[in-house]
Amino acid sequence: LYPDPDFDLNKFNECVAERRAVLDHQNKDIAEALDLLREYWSLCHQTVTDERRALAFARAAAAVKCLPFKVTNPRQLKGIKDLGDGHALRVATQIVESGHSQEVEEKRNDKKFLSFQIFCKVFGVGPSIAKKWYAMGLRTAEDVKKRFDQLDVSKDNMISYGMAFYDDLNRPLQLVEAENTYKHITALAQRILPSVVTSMIGGFRRGKSSGHDLDVLFSYPEREHNEHGLIAAVREELDKKGLVVWSRYSRADGPRGVEIDSSPLPAGSAKDHLLVIMIILKYPLDGHFDQLERRDFSTEKNLGLFQLADSARPWRAIRVDLVGSTTAQYPYAQIGWTGNKQYNRCLRQYAKDAFNYSLSSTGLYDKRQHRWLPAQTERDVFDHLKLSYREPWERNF
Ligand code: DCP
Ligand code: MG
């Protein structure tokens, strides 16, 4: 039945977290169809059932990406865990049989879905805002631009920048551009703190040749218990060079956190704020707080729009996220921020089901023994979970 004589369906189904998916997998047409339905339901959902549908299509698409052979016969799809025996299997079968699914094409061209896609491409906008805009009769980015001053998000710093730089931020960032920016930021950080360790995470670490942003992870081996401030200092240096278009800096100090938007609203916006500083209460001030130790809240983060030199004009805006972690968190932050999102979901679910562990970007917590599990490297994390190590490029679920 399978072109790969070594393929063992039982083994494939036994543990989803053991699967691997490379970018250049063999079932792109099926995965594309299932991912489109995932996107449709995650943007246009009305009910909890629709949201579950989105997650089911995400799992089904991931399963197909993990198959080590090209599906040529619908019988090869039968019995695959996560593809199920319903809707996703039906769509996958249609694609294998005819290369076409009427439902997928109808959804792909659905007017509401197309508007939601446009709206959700605005930095800071998700399905709930898209839904409001659609209900107000807005359909295109032009519509939003024209009526932006009347929208209740017109004073939202992030969304205002998202609109002002809509075209720039929807132009994919190429690997070489990301690498140059990463080198620049690392050199700057090393001048401030020579022992800093950085890594390029997100999609580029998984082998993508372009992406929607650059993600950089920082760790500070010689500053254990005193990590705060480096990302703020890097942001400050970039700002002095005039390279910061917009940024939102946040950190959590114990139960309280600080969030700072650094830039005034873009020119032409409804109202100019100079600086917004919010003290946010991140954790409940009750007994659970001690249990969290420092592990859960010692990170610093900066979401930013930075200038990147451009051949056609002086610069264009690109999205850069700078994320801090303590040395103890580092391998967990590497895994969490490398992703992808579906791979994280799968690992976290497996950790919970198999061991009653809670896995996040800050650590692995054993809820039975009430302790955090230490790790020096990503391999240690896989060992804790009794999983084979997966390289970042095998995590493209
Ligand atoms: N992440 C996550 N859940 C989220 C957001 C992010 O698990 N809600 C993790 C997984 C992502 C990683 O962080 O892979 C980086 O987030 P990005 O949104 O930058 O995603 P990618 O880097 O994977 O994609 P892109 O190439 O589009 O930037
Ligand atoms: Mg990214």
TrEMBL record:
* Gene Ontology cellular component annotations, sorted alphabetically: nucleus
Where does the source fall among the domains of life?
Eukaryota
Is this entry keyworded Coiled coil?
A: no
Tell me the residue numbers annotated for binding Mg(2+). Answer: 213, 215, 321
Q: What is its main location?
A: nucleus
What are the protein's UniProt keywords? Magnesium, Metal-binding, Nucleotidyltransferase, Nucleus, Transferase
Designated name of the protein: BRCT domain-containing protein
Q: Which organism is it from?
A: Daphnia magna
Source species taxonomy: Eukaryota, Metazoa, Ecdysozoa, Arthropoda, Crustacea
Shown residues in whole-protein numbering: 142 to 538 of 538
